[in-house]
Amino acid sequence: MDAARLLPLLGVLLVMVPMLWGTGEARPDTSSAILYLFGVWACLVALAYLVSVRLRRHIAADAKSDASEETSDDSV
Prior knowledge:
This protein is an all-alpha fold. It is 86% helix and 0% strand. It has helices spanning 2-20, 30-75. α1 (2-20) runs antiparallel to α2 (30-75). It is rod-shaped and about 70 Å long.
């Protein structure tokens, strides 16, 4: 759950990195910045997918354990 909350913050920080790149002659090409941003976007999409899958499994396991606890409490 914490990873799902921190993912947008990580995204903002990573997207802002090109603003820190040098100015003047040491400045990288625009194409490099676009490739970087696309790479960050693709990684964020993949991370969001992985976090959602794990979170869904965790929620399903909690619901299953809650249901089994309710069933065992009713039988006592």
